[in-house]
Design goal:
The structure is a single chain. The chain has 159 residues and is α+β, with helices and mostly antiparallel strands. Helix 2 packs antiparallel against helix 4. The two termini are 20 Å apart. The chain is elongated, with a radius of gyration of 17 Å. A 5-stranded antiparallel sheet has the order 2-3-1-4-5, covered by helices on one side.
């Protein structure tokens, strides 16, 4: 395992210096899901929740989350994001909404944290919009499944 890049030789937190790194095309994909009562999932699918279109709102929130990651995670660099997509799948068997966030850039540092923040924000927004009818929802399985670009190259989670 590599040494921690956000800790200096004295044990202090630090932002990684990326000044000399070459810009490359970078992409990261993160996933997660939210489980809920079957009746809640039916309301989401039918567009019958009082707060409006859950998935459209969650998609916008996920995009905003990616764009604001450096304001939330202290050692993240502000990144010129070139693309964010948030996709949802309804899993009727598990009474769940599965989310995938893909974030792209051309830059000197990766977008893994932006993808993870995007999927987290999207799922939190689903929770917020549905909590009036279902407080037992559960957000799980948030993870990076792929990243490309940079010095370390491609990473793919083997599941």
């Amino acid at each position: 395992m590599n040494s921690l890049t956000h800790i200096d030789e004295l044990g202090n937190a630090k932002m990684v210096d990326v000044t000399e790194k070459a810009a490359t095309r970078r992409e990261a994909i993160a996933v997660g899901s939210i489980t809920m009562a079957p009746a809640t999932l039916a309301l989401v699918k039918g567009g019958n929740l009082p707060k409006g279109d859950v998935l459209s709102t969650a998609r916008i929130a996920g995009i905003m989350g990616a764009k604001h990651t450096s304001a939330l995670i202290p050692m993240c660099h502000p990144i010129n994001i070139t693309s964010v997509t948030i996709d949802f799948q309804i899993n009727n068997e598990k009474h769940a909404i599965e989310a995938a966030a893909t974030v792209k850039t051309v830059g000197v540092t990766g977008v893994e944290m932006e993808a993870l923040t995007a999927v987290s924000t999207a799922l939190l927004t689903v929770y917020d919009m549905c909590k009036a009818v279902d407080k037992d929802m559960s957000i799980t399985g948030i993870m990076l499944i792929k990243k490309t670009g940079g010095k370390s190259g491609t990473y793919e989670r083997h599941v």
